[in-house]
């Protein structure tokens, strides 16, 4: 690897290790020393890339958490049948709901709950992700109405907010219970709700 590429590799390693530490402990309890130890870099290397801990946290949000979340709703962007796309996405996410997500929860929601009241840099970034997520559902449902795949009487903005809040709530309950049982029960209910968004035959 060329010397020119090494700083990029170091920065990415710091981001990944910071993500792991923040996901496990929360941002305010995350230890810079633990991040440095895991990344195998010096404090000087950290401050070469990030001015302070907040700057590191913002970069984790922008470069790791945001793309992770966007992948959850991206299939909705082009789906002709948003109900089927949403149900498929939820089932796929359940398959990936492994021990880490059950143990530590959703990295986006954790940061939203912890940092939104305390830091505007975090809050504005988190609000941007949330707005994009809700917007993706709203656009998909509206497109579904236009194509006759979603009930014409559906309140699209309200439904989009409800769906996103239900998804995040299910992860939160699973984290609290340290079990996927509640998640599975809630997921069944959410899928039943989504199926009822189709027009009557």
Name a few traits of the molecule:
single chain; DNA-bd_HTH_TetR-type_CS; transcription regulation; about 75% helix; Arc Repressor Mutant, subunit A; 10 helices; mainly alpha; DNA-binding; about 200 residues; about 0% strand; Homeodomain-like_sf
Structure description:
This protein is mostly helical and 201 residues long. It folds into 2 domains: 1-60, Orthogonal Bundle (Arc Repressor Mutant, subunit A), CATH 1.10.10; 72-196, no CATH class. It is built from 10 helices and no strands. It has helices spanning 6-25, 32-39, 43-49, 53-73, 82-95, 99-104, 107-115, 120-146, 156-177, 181-195. The longest helix has 27 residues, at 120-146. The mean pLDDT is 92.
Shape: elongated
Q: What is the helix content?
A: over 70%
Name the helix and strand elements from N-terminus to C-terminus, one letter apiece.
Answer: HHHHHHHHHH
Tell me the count of domains: 2
Low-pLDDT regions: none
Oligomer: single chain
Please identify the structural class as seen in this structure.
mainly alpha
According to DSSP, the number of beta strands is 0
Radius of gyration: 19 Å
Q: How can the largest sheet be summarized?
A: none
Please state roughly what percent of the residues sit in beta strands, choosing from under 5%, 5-15%, 15-25%, 25-35%, 35-45% or over 45%.
Answer: under 5%
Number of helices in the DSSP assignment: 10
N- to C-terminal distance: 61 Å
């Amino acid at each position: 690897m060329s010397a020119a590429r090494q700083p990029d590799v170091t920065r990415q390693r710091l981001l990944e290790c910071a993500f792991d530490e923040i996901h496990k402990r929360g941002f305010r309890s995350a230890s810079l020393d633990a991040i440095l130890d895991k990344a195998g870099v010096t404090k000087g290397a950290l401050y070469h890339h990030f001015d302070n801990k907040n700057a590191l946290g913002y970069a984790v949000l922008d470069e790791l958490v945001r793309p992770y979340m966007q992948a959850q709703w991206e299939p909705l962007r082009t789906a002709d049948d948003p109900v089927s796309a949403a149900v498929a996405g939820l089932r796929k996410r359940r398959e990936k709901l492994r021990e880490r997500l059950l143990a530590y929860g959703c990295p986006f929601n954790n940061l939203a709950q912890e940092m939104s009241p305390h830091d505007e840099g975090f809050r504005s970034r988190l609000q941007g992700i949330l707005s994009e997520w809700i917007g993706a559902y709203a656009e998909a449902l509206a497109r579904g109405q236009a194509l006759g795949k979603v009930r014409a009487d559906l309140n699209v903005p309200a439904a989009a907010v409800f769906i996103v809040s239900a998804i995040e709530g299910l992860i939160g309950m699973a984290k609290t219970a340290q079990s996927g049982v509640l998640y599975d029960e809630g997921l069944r209910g959410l899928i039943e709700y989504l199926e009822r968004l189709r027009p009557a035959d």
